Amino acid sequence: MTILEFSLIVGAGSLVAGFLGALTGLGGGVVLVPMLTLLLGVDIRYAIGASLVSVIATSSGAAAAYVKEGISNIRVGMFLEVATTLGALAGATLATHISSSKISIVFGLVLIVSAFLSWRPQTKNDRNAAPDSLATKLRLNGSYPEGDGVRSYNVQRVPLGWTLMFGAGTLSGLLGIGSGAMKVLAMDQAMKIPFKVSTTTSNFMIGVTAAASAGIYLSRGYIDPGLSMPVMLGVLAGSLLGTKVLVKAHPKWLRRVFSIVIVALGAEMLYKGISGRI
Q1: Total structural domains in the chain?
Q2: What is the Cα–Cα distance from 71 to 119, expressed in whole angstroms?
Q3: Residue 160 predicted with pLDDT over 80
Q4: What secondary structure letter does DSSP report for 40?
Q5: Could you tell me which residues come within 8 angstroms of residue 156 by beta carbon, excluding any fewer than 6 positions away?
Q6: 0.85 exceeded by the pTM?
Q7: What backbone phi and psi angles, to 5 degrees, belong to 144?
Q8: pLDDT digits over 30-56, tens only?
């Protein structure tokens, strides 16, 4: 395989990863790392380094478009990012004391169960819930364009959402994975934030976490420009395409795509945990 052929294959796969990442709020790493390591034989450290670059590209491309469209909730994203960052520090500290394989198995099971929960749309009671006093004080409630009008929503159970975000960050630090799945589930299921807002706000948040991790991989020489360039270009194009689809897509189909990707990710985590590959 020539360098040009390899770059074209990586670019095409990255485009798909960016598209799914923008739709689901998970970032492109869910698709990219298995593709690069299993299909193309790339060393996993360089694959993760390229994946981090792709997450930054997804976040930069998709988040900018979502903010422009008025869908992302920046105040919620910045508030919850504090919890995930503290959780990531705690997870990194615990990483040397807890078996990653056991945590991976539990995480995989949680993701699969969560995928079935996320398949169920929010009820009218969820959508019309009374304002939460803490969310009101923090000015977390918001609105976003839907159809021909604007839909307002009230953020619920802020302490529970913050705690889940801390757990998501801890898992990320323990396992060295992105926590986009848990972020979306915490906002959608616990805080009752509309699914479109949850996915777009997650896209905004994951770029902050990935930027910090990418600096470490760059300092260790695990970001190869020859690999990262087609990854970044493909993911950026895919994420911009994904934003166009998400704005017009029905939340029911977004939930289904998200659930399918989460089941695949959960199965992968289970496999890695049982086989001791993580």
Answers
A1: 1
A2: 21
A3: yes
A4: S
A5: 129, 132, 135, 190, 191, 192
A6: no
A7: -150, 155
A8: 678 777 877 888 887 788 788 888 777
Do residues 67 and 204 make contact, with C-beta atoms less than 8 angstroms apart? yes
Is residue 145 within a helix (H) or strand (E), and if so which, with residue range?
A: strand 142-146
Domain residues for the domain of 107 are 3-274
**Residue 29: enclosing H or E segment and its boundaries?**
helix 29-34
Instruction: State the Cα angle at 234 between 230 and 235, rounded to 5°.
Output: 115
How far apart are alpha carbons 231 and 225 in whole angstroms? 10
Average pLDDT over residues 199-217: 77
Tell me the per-residue pLDDT of 4-15, one tens digit each, with 9 for 90 and over: 888 999 999 889
Q: How far apart are the first and last CA of the chain?
A: 30
Sheet strands (E) in 156-260: none
Rounded distance, CA 266 to CA 270, Å? Answer: 6
Tens-digit pLDDT profile for residues 227-260: 989 988 888 888 888 888 877 777 777 778 877 8
Count of CA atoms in the C-beta half-sphere (13 A) of 72: 25
